[in-house]
TrEMBL record, chain A:
GO terms of molecular function: ATP binding
Domain ABC transporter: from-to ranges: 12-248, 259-502
Entry protein name: Sugar ABC transporter ATP-binding protein
Keyword field contains Heme: no
SUPFAM superfamilies: P-loop containing nucleoside triphosphate hydrolases
Keywords: ATP-binding, Cell membrane, Membrane, Nucleotide-binding, Repeat, Sugar transport, Translocase, Transport
Origin species: Streptomyces cheonanensis
Cross-referenced CDD domains: ABC_Carb_Monos_I (cd03216), ABC_Carb_Monos_II (cd03215)
UniProtKB/TrEMBL annotation, chain B:
Entry's transmembrane regions: 35-56, 88-110, 117-136, 156-179, 212-229, 241-259, 266-284, 290-309
Keyword hit for DNA-binding: no
Matching InterPro entries: ABC_transp_permease
Protein name, UniProt field: Autoinducer 2 import system permease protein LsrC
Protein task: Part of the ABC transporter complex LsrABCD involved in autoinducer 2 (AI-2) import. Probably responsible for the translocation of the substrate across the membrane.
Topological category with respect to the lipid bilayer: Multi-pass membrane protein
GO MF: transmembrane transporter activity
Species for this entry: Streptomyces harbinensis
One annotated Gene Ontology cellular component of this protein: plasma membrane
TrEMBL record, chain C:
Record's signal peptide: none
Entry GO MF terms: transmembrane transporter activity
Domain of life from the UniProt record: Bacteria
Record key words, sorted: Cell inner membrane, Cell membrane, Membrane, Transmembrane, Transmembrane helix, Transport
GO CC annotation terms, alphabetical: plasma membrane
Localization of this protein: Cell membrane
Major location category of this protein: membrane
Membrane topology note: Multi-pass membrane protein
Protein's name according to its UniProt entry: Autoinducer 2 import system permease protein LsrD
InterPro entries in UniProt: ABC_transp_permease (IPR001851)
Amino acid sequence: MPDPTAAPPPALRLHRVAKSFGAVTAVSDVSLTLHPGRVHALAGENGAGKSTLVRMLAGVHRPDRGTLELDGHPTVLRDPAAARAAGIAVIHQEPTLFPDLSIAENLYLSRQPTGRLGRIDRRALRAATTAQLARLGVTLDPDRPARGLSIADQQLVEIARALSLDARIFVMDEPTAALSGTEAARLAAVVRGLCDRGAAVLFISHRFEEIFGLAHDITVLRDGRHVSTDPADRLTPDTVVRRMVGRDVGALYPKTPTTPGDTVLEVTGLTRHGAFHDISFSVRRGEILALAGLVGAGRSEVVRAVFGVDRYDAGTVTVAGRPLPAGSPAAAMAAGLALVPEDRRQQGLVLQLSVERNTALTRLRRLARHGLLTTRRERADALHWTERLRVRHGGTHTPAGTLSGGNQQKIVLAKWLATEPAVLILDEPTRGIDIGTKAEVHRMMSELAARGLAIVMVSSELPEVLGMADRILVLHEGRATATLPGPGATAETVMAAATGHPGGAA
Amino acid sequence: MTRAHPRELGVLAALLLLIAGTAAANPRFLSAQSVRDLLLSAAILTVLAAGQTVVVLTRNIDLSVGSVLGLAAFGTADLLATHPGTPLPLAALAGITIGALCGALNGALISYGGVPALVITLGTLYVLRGAAHSWAAGRQINAADLPRPFLDLGTATVLGIPLLALLATAVVLAVALWLHSYRSGRELYAIGSEPAAAARAGVPAGRRIRTAFLLSGSLAGLAGVLYAARYGTVDATAGQGMELQVVAAVVVGGVAIFGGSGSVTGAALGALLLTCIGSSLAVLRVDPFWQQAVVGALILAAIGLDRLLTTRLAARAARTAPEVSRAG
Amino acid sequence: MPAEPPSGRGAAVLRRWDSALIATLLLVTLAAALAVDGFATGRNAQFLLLDAVAIGLVALPVTLIVVTGEIDLSVASTLGLCSAVMGQLWVSGWPLELVVLTAVALGALLGAVNGLFVTGFGLPALAVTIGTLAAYRGLAFVVLGDRAVADFPRAWTDAVGGTALAGAVPAAMLVTAVAAAGCAVLLHATPLGRSLFAIGNNAEAARFSGIAVARTKFWLFVSCGAVSGLAGVFWTLRYASARADNGQGLELAVVAAVLLGGVSIFGGRGTLAGVCAGVLLLVTLRNALQLADVPADTLDIVTGSLLILSVLAPRALTALRRTPTTRT
């Protein structure tokens, strides 16, 4: 096709797009341009609007305002099929493949090469798959079922599938979050290869060394708004962090120093085959211990096993000197443990049930009188706690699912603080919530620690780990690689241990 | 497909073991007549199992097949009894059409209503049986009422093999070919394996599920025609309770109850195994009342075994790839 | 997924469903009283209520199970097996008190088997209880064959069919009503009831809140078995006949009544009042049609259609009120 202009138009251009869900504004006034052959990184804290942008490009959400242009032509992505037809491929953190089908069929479902009488030509199918995988520089048996493939391999299958569909724009939503170092490096090579072939890539990651190693341009988002777009070589990780956070980091992490008391929680030699191995730590009253590491390092699995939601194969958990029976959340709760889980919507709350039913869920017996529970009692209790945590809601009888992410998280905190725990375990306590609530949650953590609670926090956000923790336990591929004192730790020492190179740290 | 083989071989091995054991206890079990009877009885169950396989692969279930068989059997017999001049292919087509209509109804209710197949087909199980009863109004059609050539179909043999068994084999081969070698057939596996991914890949799930139920209904209709030809005596209770045997055959044959894996040959072997168990119980003079209990026990054993194997596989995968064992 | 359930709609829909159901029940009763000879008599009312006892009793634990998102299709077979064992033990000369206790205990045991397969081995309740539906019914035939045991003492059979409150209500219905009231309190005003709704909506979140999900479900299956056993005792004494096929097909009526009562087949939603109205509506309809000389076999059309309608109607209602959203 002849093109009158000299410079090729951008592969994709988002112009001043906005998207709201009910009263919540997810994205407002964001512009973004992707060029062929360039990697564009998108940086921002959780809740900054990255996922909403990804869903727009995937055809899942349609922007309320603003335009989308492909090769200079305004386009509306009506549904995921339209996005795919437009050459946009979205690679997720954990791809959804067909576990029962072979790799070849995952690549070519509904498009298998056919021979006589419309029969699938299996030999051609295999050859095409091998060729497609070879373009990415990987060898996988095309006949192998997708079940049991590592996440890294699943992503490659997904990318190969997109390539076979002639995708020119790759949107990668935290693709390396669950990968090991070598796997991430292999993916980076694949991404460079895609660019060399003229693809435009939007790359989302929390790892700065990856962003700066791969990206040509970096856009920073904050609170759903566009902050800046610059060539990568004009930025430093520090400037990006400052723009992401957008305020004095100290205000966000109001950690007050405390003097730790007695040891409350002691974990020794905890092991679950295939998840984590020989993990030991202890937490004292008034202390905040952070479990740091990459996603998939086994941190959530450890705290889940401690709380009894998951089983473990070896090791002991003692609370205030008493051994805790394995595999019983009820026993853990009775001993004074509380777990605010990682996935608020699946594990933290029953979204369909009302706020008052959710807050009561951890104390059903205690709230009952003569074995009977009344809505009145639940409501009074829920009002008490929602006021105390300043939850904004449309009445405690409304389903928890109607609240914003930050307020949902406060409900989860409320239902656990109401159990009056001695040890509070927080798994990604500020994931996906707005920056204001985030600061509130941090302040609350500080206060609770000051009042003598022992706190264990799992977090993937380095500033949060560095800003809040008294001590940091770093995990790498299921093993503890370092224990660092909170005040002395730096992003570099934590990341080194998290990627399996604890250089010099004790 | 490659992974399904061990499972099918397992069923085959169980089948051979059963035959060998029963034959050792009573050699008459392997007489030509006895084998012919066995194949005849298995034929109808096999045709039903082929249709059920297609439905179960998509993560659905069709509990109404016994009632569809009854309705089609009675309809065909009634047509031939009241209009003895009807050409046999036309009569067979009528039976199959009754089945197809029932299947289309199931499929439409399930895919457009977005409700579980279990509930819908449990409902149509009774509705269609009730319809058969109200049609028959207590009548029974006997062999004497039916044209001789039609009844001959039920006993005819080709090279000593019953015609019905050959027909059932042809059905199984055709369905197997479709499931294995055609895009739409593979899409059934995709839908059952991971519905979300199927939707993302643009698989027309609703249409495929409707097709699956249409096929299951049509094959149940065909089974009804075969039933009328084989037994000659048909009333409104024909095929009552047969859905349990069909589900058992499919599950025993290695089709995962949650869809996505299994093969129609496995289901056919399951049907054969189930029929064989029935005959061996008779040959070994075991109380025939045991048969239904055995069907139930086989369903439980089969799903239990499948679960055991999957957890084993998952555990092995977790051991070999520790870094990807995220539970959440 | 941004699509949240809008504020309080679930509860409002449920309330509206309950009132619509009760209005329908009154309308059907009124219409039957006017149009059907012999419906509005004290004698028929007694019969009607006695007919509602078995369905009503079994519907109570099935409601609790469906609220947690599981299902038990084996209730009727449990009833049949308990009835058969009851007959066999009575014939063998056991005292009837002990026979009754054994039957109920056996029911609990059969329920425990279901519970073990579902919660212990993690198998889908649907598949498990289809298996035990076949297995328990088969065992009932193994125990009693096609015999019937009828010589139960008059004192017992009269007591079961007798009346209470100055002859106004059948005693058995009174017991059922009290049980229903107890169940309503359990489901709607106790910690256990709250846990059941939490489990049905999101079992994982319930587990993370310290609720023993597996144990709760296990005991629900046990109590469902025990109540089915009790219903078997009632059935046997009411008809003074222990038979292996007692209560065959009752699972349909029970599931239909529960779903008709507004309990969501996906779990997490429903009221016990709705289920009671569902049971009465079903029984009243069948009773009126029977009096209007509709043959019993044809009545299954009504029950089956009600079942289908009860799952389709809520879907249709929500679809009408909400613009369709893409489901993933």
